[in-house]
Amino acid sequence: MAGKVSTAKGKTGATKSRQKYQNTFAFKPNKNNTAAVRIVNLPAQGLCQRCLDIIDWRKRMNKYKPLSQPKTCLVCKGKKITDAYHVLCKGCAGERNVCAKCQESTDIVISDVKTPAQRLKEEQEQAAVLASMSERQRRSYLRKMDRGDDEGAEKLATAAAEKEDGGWSDFDDNFGDDVEEESDDDQDDQ
Ligand SMILES: [Zn+2]
Ligand SMILES: [Zn+2]
After folding, report:
1. Nearest ligand (C-alpha, residue 53)
2. Which of 71, 85, 124, 148 could lock 81 by a disulfide, CB 3.0 to 4.6 Å apart?
């Protein structure tokens, strides 16, 4: 609910009934952030669809950390990995025909080029999922991403997406006691 309470002007020291409110925000990657845009457009190659999705999520959530220097391939031990979150170099992954991240799937997606429309759709879905989460869930979700717990984060997001129609409401009801309030009534005095 978005009830707006007009601040009582001119009253000082009177009993203030402060409205408790939740600051809800929808996470939005800043489109003007060129670094973020650059990251989104970084290629992810030799991956299965699942890992591709995970990396894509990371990019969109600003949780993608590009490699600052080439990483060692688990198989050939060469410092040949240039794509973040990959554990096999392109050569080794290609030779074995496995995903360069999970090393399990052999169902490699050839092209990861997405149309702007596809990206937009995914962004919207992402925004919808995040909007359906309470702030606490969102925090936990982002924490999982930070920890590199891709599966946990994905699970949370999936659960949130599936239970969009009120399944989370119990959570939301219990939330709100540790929200910080901003004082906005100090400038009324003259
Ligand atoms: Zn290798
Ligand atoms: Zn994979």
Report:
1. 2
2. 71
